[in-house]
Input
Amino acid sequence: MRPFQMNLTFTATEGKSRGFYILLTILAAFAIAGFFCFITSYVRGHQVLGTSNVVPWGMPIVIAIYLIGLSAGSLILSSLTYVFGKEEYRPISRIAVFLAIVLIFGAMVAIALDLGRPEKSWRLFMFFVLNNMRSMFAINGILYGGYFVISSVYLGLILAEKSKPTRIMGILAIFWAVLVHMGTGAIFGFIAARPVFYSPVKPFEFIAAAMVSGLALLTIVVVFVFKFTKRTFDNRIIFSLSKLLLALIVTLFVIVLIDKLTHLYPPHREPVIWLITGPYSWIFWGLQLGCAYILPLILLFHPRFGKTTKGVIGAAFLVVVGIFGERFALVIPGTAHPLPYYPGKIEGIWGAAGSFLFTPIETLMSLGMFALMGLFFILGLRYLDLLPVNESGDENPAQGKGG
Amino acid sequence: MVIDLDKCVGCQACTIACKSENNVPHGSPEEQGLRREIYWNKVIAVTNGRYPRVNTQLIPMPCMHCDHAPCVTVCPAKATYRREDGVIVQDFRRCIGCKYCIVACPYGARSFNSKEQDEKEYHRPDLPPDRSVWGMWPFPTRTHGVVEKCTFCFHRIDQGMKEGKRIGKDVVPACVEDCPASARSFGDLDDTGSEVSRLISSRGWVRLREGLDTKAKVYYLPK
Output
């Protein structure tokens, strides 16, 4: 085992500047607004949201699987330092682990907000007693709960700088993160009634998407945090990460291609054809294919842009937006296509494709979730030793994106 | 349950009977358009062919009460389960409202209750008081945030069994009772002497979406 190199010390941000407090206030305001929107949806029922009996899952589920992906990806990347001993990534690995914890917390909040009766969600955790362990959702309850505990212990060990237990915990954390996201994919992949979901490839597609989006988000967050706190940053990290990003995007692209191609063959073609040609096709072509795969690949392969920080950050930003589109294209058009109850054309509302309405309450609730995570993230930077010690002058802590 | 498509006239009496028997919340036309109205039973019209050679079939669809029910498999909270007699029931007190069952059901038989019910003066003096207050049925005041579905009127069946009545003859679900064309028959599929067994042995039958191997227990006798 490689020993820890102790020449790198970590610290918290000062958190005394005006920018920090302004950001804190804005995020807190959004989080509180989101909380009130949740209370409204809880009291008045889900009629205030955009979901219906055709599209039962809305933005909170889109956001939840997106965040679980980002979290799993981020945690797996932290293992580059703590398990595989790649020392060049050490400055960003603490942030990666902390980001993973914040994101999984956000995902749990998102799932809870989507439940019709969130006060009964304790039933999900009564494993083998009150819940049905054949349900993928119940199995994922074990995975998410365990993930939260494991990643928290992992961060604790890293902050305490105990190298040997960290490595063991790191190995456990990678396996668990892979399981968590494959389990999330299985929630969708095992549903035979929805041909867009139904695929054995789904868990693998999810884990690839998790790695891609987690890496992209980590790149963005690290660059912004280091820039706003005026820390010097070794650009070589960015370029080695961009090579990894490139490989992962290609992997994801191939898996998605296989998934969609198998669905274009009979027997259940219509929903997938509807997805790629119907009213939601712009999300599939524009966001999923364009933003998540093709444009970043062009940027990263480009002889000039691929070699600049701006080009890599641009590609990472496109990926983060595009993977959100991928989740949206899965959850909402995946259920919106009418079910073929009987051969022939079903007349009236029962044969019409569902649509998803963006309501103000749901949108504000979604923004509130992101704001809550941003809040936890900057408070984490303020109170935990996550960033490497600044060698170059003034502390000016304030940072943009939290998640 | 056996539904004779030859007799169905598409009058929707089964839908209305179900709504009034089970106190299923009403919805406005806007809510129906948004697909937020709760239907335990629906009647779909399926058109095949083109004018002038066209054929529209009317298919009444209650919950299919599948033997291999996807909704029971996916429900994390055991809110949906299969009773001993094969009826798939939904316990509103256990349901957490995750909507996974709506996604998994291949028949669209499930609806989410997305608002507080308007009128609460629902009185069923014919039901025994213990059931109407503490039992899982009939929920005189309904709660929003849970998923609902057809129960094959199991409160009627249980009551009839207790009183020693013949199920399928003296006691039937509300939709079967109210069908003006007697298109629906209800009974024990395992009992070779029952009306439903006689019907499905006398004619060819179909079950919806056989390809998914749900082993639905609603049989249709085609035209």
Remarks:
- Chain B touches chain A through 55 residues (CB under 8 Å).
